[in-house]
Amino acid sequence: MPFVEWRNPAIAAEVYAKCTTSRGEVTLTRERGPQTRPEDHADAVESWTVSLRGGEATLKVHRLVPEPLPMRWRIRKGVEGEADGDPFRLAGTSALRRSGRSVTYEGPAIDVRLVPRAFGLRLVERGEEAGFRSFDNQWELPDPTDHAVLAVCLFEWAGLDDLLRTPVLRDL
């Protein structure tokens, strides 16, 4: 999808991205989200649904925006979502020390954390390292669960790796 179309607010539910993974095809559907606060209207808040194999497994996150800076701000505050109908929270932290940076998906059905390591990113699921992103930005997930695949796809499409960079370099 062209950059200009990606940054435009979603009006109706529409598929914005697709990718093929070892677990099947993943799609991103964006639609107008709940707009109950003044900043929701100003930021054109959206609901993003990431689906695997036509909806067998889904992550739906409310109150996201296509613009990078407001997106980073919202993720740092934390946003609510649903993983196959169960509630979860998506949150990110950004700190000077690498150990203080992460993006987490936490709920009864999902427990995924993406963290920076010395030379890349690591995916930790339920306390166990489950995969990593290589130097060429390709994810290596040997035996991924559906939720791990959905979490990685949402992470990449939302540009959340920006939270895992050192703030000193990111904000230059």
Secondary structure layout plus pairing:
Layout: H1 3-7, E1 14-21, E2 24-32, H2 38-43, E3 46-52, E4 57-64, H3 68-77, E5 79-83, E6 86-93, E7 102-106, E8 111-117, E9 120-125, E10 128-133, E11 139-140, H4 146-158, H5 167-170
Antiparallel strand pairs: 1-2, 2-3, 3-4, 4-5, 5-6, 6-7, 7-8, 8-9, 9-10, 10-11
Question: What percentage of residues falls in helices of 4 or more residues?
Answer: 10-25%
Please trace the helix and strand order, writing H or E for each element.
HEEHEEHEEEEEEEHH
Give the rounded overall mean pLDDT.
Answer: 89
Radius of gyration: 15 Å
Give the number of DSSP strands: 11
Q: Any low-confidence stretches, pLDDT <50, length ≥5?
A: none
| SS class | alpha+beta
